[in-house]
Amino acid sequence: MTIYEPGDLVRLRFYTRDPATGALASATSATVTITTPDGVVGAPSSPITASPAGTYDYDYTPGAQTGFHLAKFLATGTNAGEADAWFVIRSRRSVPLPEWTPELDAVADWIPGRTLSSILTPGVESYLGTFTDTTTPTNEQVSRLIEAAVAYVRSKVGATVDSTLYDEARAAASVVAAAYVELAYPTRDADLNTYDRLWAQAGFLVDSLADSNTTITGGSTSLAQSLMPTWSYPDPVPWGDTLIP
Known about the structure:
By secondary structure, the chain is α+β, with helices and mostly antiparallel strands. It folds into 2 domains: about 1-90, Macroglobulin (MG2) domain (Immunoglobulin-like, Sandwich); about 95-225, no CATH class. It contains 5 helices and 6 strands. It has helices at about 105-110, 140-155, 165-185, 190-215, 225, and strands at about 1-5, 10-15, 30-35, 55-60, 65-75, 80-90. Helix 2 crosses helix 3. The protein starts with a strand and ends in a 19-residue tail after the last helix. About 30% of the residues are buried. The model is unreliable at about 220-230 (pLDDT under 50).
């Protein structure tokens, strides 16, 4: 279950599969219905299109009402199915998340092996490309790590990132969050090696972002640049060449 702030964009993803093979396959028609915490059931959405096959994305912007919301996905006809997704709207952040906050699938792009669903068809190994309540870690757990990643990037870059650098900031936070996932949920020694490589990449991206942001907005350079060693030497004496054997 994922936690959002009022006004956040809630991005939902559902899947339909061929019942014979277990492979992702589109249904004839699919809609989403949202039930708010006060029990009001909204009208079904307009039919949503799968892209790619069997993968349905639905964006929902909740109002100010906090509490548990239920999204009900219903697919009919060929490859019919249904699924429920709960999410929570509540105010819990002292500072709203910035526009460049990465989505779950942006983090998953760096660690796709973490998106294996625990609900498997025998003989079929399917990577979802994002985090859900059936992955380890879940979408809610990764969402909290994304918030921590954003806080880390802000601590290095500053609270204000120029709008022309939002893509770079999103990429940096994505790698930081992916590293946090590998550190928090290791299943084998190699996962910590992956963490080391991700963290090194994250450091490079964050430092580059800090320097680019400084160039545009002013302020101090990145910590990595400020700690670079410098050297100076006295001018050579005129007879210096005679000292060469």
